[in-house]
Amino acid sequence: QEVAGDEEKQQQESGGNASAGDTGVSGGRASRELRGLQLFSWDSQRRKFPPGEKLSNRVQNLARKRVQPERLEAGDLLVPSKKRKSSDGQKAKEEKKPKIKAAKTVPSAKRPAQQKKKAKNPAPVEPRHHDVHVSLSGMRSKVRLRCLKYADKCGVQIAEFKSKEWREGTTHVVTPKLGRSEKTLAGMASGAWIVKEGWLRDCAKVKSGLKDEKDYFAEGSQDDLVTRNAGGIWARRYQETKEKAFEGLKAFFHGGCAQNAPSTDTLIRIFKAGNGQVACSTEGVDFAVVPNLEDESDPVVRECKANNIALVSEIFIIEYLALPTKDLASLVSSGATLTARMKTLIRSRT
To answer: Residue 168 carries which DSSP code?
Structure first.
């Protein structure tokens, strides 16, 4: 390119009117390169290619090798640049395009079948047994979900299964085994049916009615904590006498009595589930629940001993239900006179 530029300057200085093309025809090496540049649309004044034009890769490679322009094909010289469409032109074309209205969908023959499939999914069944209220206890999440499905099929109401507290009005406690949980102990006190998961499963298979609970009693695994058939003993006793575990008893609960139990409120809920009455003072009670039977420094203990009121520990409430055949004399203060009602309940319990 520099050589071509020098030749043009020399021609202007000498006053010659020969064109750049004539110089290329003269046959020198520089004239041949200048002629090639003219073929490539070289602008000698601006010393650049016209805007929007590029040399093809093949031509660029051949130019580096200094190949004579006569050997180049016309199609290899320039690559036409892509012309961009103006935004106005695009808008005009879009406006010209006719708007296609969405065709109305005609229901096909397959849709009724799809609707039938959706109808197969069972809707939640309304409770058919309004007098049956089930509570779940001691279950894993998978077993809970399974029991909820069974209860939905047989139309049984499920209480708040996420709560560990006893709910008044519960008639059935479904649990894998007997334990000392609040729901299980309160169920024994209230005379509720304490059954296994199989009762709900078989009730879901029956089209009408519920299965007999006597064939599905939950049992304990450790006799020293819960008697194996304690749930059945309290349920049968309630069905025969229609009396709950603490029927007619009135008790006072000391504020710090729950040392070996979850809480004082738990003991009170269990006692109330057995139809027991909770007193605000020791006056007229059958017994008082205190943390220590022999603690003379406790004013409640001194008051009860002075008034000849029986003192019991919190374990008395729990083992009274969990171990219905155990002698509980060691859990009652010695020397106290038991009320007639309390003697009757203890005697009927054994």
So the answer is: T
How do 287-289 and 250-253 pair as beta strands? Answer: parallel
Task: Note the pTM of the prediction, 2 decimals.
Answer: 0.62
Strand partners, 250: 277
Of 278, 193, 180, 176, which is closest to residue 237 (Cα–Cα)?
A: 193
**Chain-centroid distance, C-alpha 315:** 38
- The predicted pLDDT at position 311 comes to 93
Please give the radius of gyration of the chain, using alpha carbons only, rounded to the nearest integer: 50
CA distance 137 to 292: 31
Q: Are 156 and 134 in contact (CB under 8 A)?
A: yes
| H or E stretch covering 299 | helix 299-306
Q: Mapping DSSP to helix (H, G, I), strand (E, B) and coil, where does residue 269 land?
A: helix
* Residue where the block lists tokens 């008034």: 307
Confidence (pLDDT) at 112 = 53
Amino acid 302 reads: R
**pLDDT per 10-residue tile (average), the chain, 350 residues:** 50 46 44 53 52 59 58 50 53 55 52 50 59 91 92 85 85 94 95 95 86 92 87 94 93 83 88 95 92 89 92 90 88 82 73
CB 299, CB 277: distance < 8 Å: no
The enclosing H or E element of 347 equals helix 340-349
* 214, 218, 224 from 221: Cα distances, Å: 19, 10, 9
DSSP characters over 64-123: HTT--GGGS-GGGTEEEPPPPPPHHHHHHHHHHSPPPPPPPPPPPTTHHHHHHHHHHSPP
Residue 18: per-residue pLDDT: 41
